[in-house]
């Protein structure tokens, strides 16, 4: 740290001090004049700054510090070498700490002739002076003639009046941690800086954040600041901003968006544990209660914050689900809304993991009065009868009768039992999977409480149901879900691959083989393999896929010692017989428990083409 040392002659010079060697010092807070008026680090080195107007600030500060028994003082204009980007970055990241460590801060209000205009000073409008007001242990205000106006504590009511900062902030016993993120942002809302980036950089110390300076990044600096705040805080009030120009997204682009947040406080719900927000490639990942409330997959993400004294009216942001699964949502309203708890109880809605895009919303403005007028019945209900039915069966009806939007809306409602089974043991997920309702499956898999591997009365999982029905896209969705048990067998010990092979679902078979080729040799209750089932049903495309898979045993006999070739021959599937005969290790004359060979089965049923193939293979 570079300081100005006061000599006995009344002059001063620059010295550098480090760590524990830094002596007690005073620090100056002021608003800058034009660059040619202020004394720079270079001026101090060359001794050429004495004729500058700003030199009088140094003279005063040095004299006042000496009168206060201090031999050192710090002034930003000349104690930082601003030609060095590395030094400037270090200084800005250390500024809050330096002001906090000072014995006293002298706040020079150059535009205040007397205490009558104290509150109108430009000093209260600048971004950098915010931390200079808050951080020091003691602040003494001086007017344009260097006459003392009073201390921060003495003038706390006036300071609160012109800054919006509560008086208790200036008490030593009050920690900034007792204020919400939104409240602290609001203190900077009406302050300006010369550089756009400094709107963010001047707040780093207040939030206890260090980050690199990138002049030229514009408003992205404020986005970066909020991202850093997310890393150290789970305070939802960070998202409780409103913007007049409609820009932003999940995060605000300027402190001005928090201008109405002076009384926004975080609420504590001891009954629910929230994971802190996380920044990902898809935006901000955050756990919130979510309420679907309109067409176009729109809803309210309920924040864990409210207006002070109004815990029954939590804030919410209006969003649209772009992915149909809450995995990619977008803030579509530039305002923060309040939820009328007298009409609707948000606690009934489950906590969901949302991914909110950091892009810019479309600037729509939602009318708070619309939400205030909603009755409980309107919130719990939907646009059609199946979403108004408050029974578990409503979800099954919606899957068959409704649009995806209605299904989505129903899934956001409280009381929907997504894992409930019907009389056949079918769940909503297994039913949607068997029907190939891809959108519905995607939405169901995104539900926090969904049980992916529940079976119906036949022991069939949603994956098996989808594989059996040949719903390729649905199978792909289920295979991509890490919770899915890919080889789970039904009551007949048949796997999804076994059923897909039997029904000739070649695209599904290919997916299943790629995901888990161990199923290819799994036997069912009758010791039949997927190849046996495919051969018996003449599924030549599937047989070809299975023959190229690892671990396929071409001549494995079932409980009756019948091979895939035996089954294909008995049913006259000549194309399958030909494929099997060209495979390695095929046993053409292998008999079953009754000593019947594939040839005898084909001959008994009169399949001459198959008989000819087998006779030729037997000779070779």
From TrEMBL:
Protein name: Heterokaryon incompatibility domain-containing protein
Pfam families, sorted: Ank_2, HET
Keyword Protein biosynthesis carried by entry: no
Record key words, sorted: ANK repeat
ANK repeat segments: 594-620
Gene3D superfamilies: Ankyrin repeat-containing domain
InterPro entries, per database record: Ankyrin_rpt, Ankyrin_rpt-contain_sf, HET
Residue intervals of the Heterokaryon incompatibility domain: 25-112
Record-linked SUPFAM superfamilies: Ankyrin repeat
Organism encoding this protein: Epicoccum nigrum
Lineage per the UniProt record: Eukaryota, Fungi, Dikarya, Ascomycota, Pezizomycotina
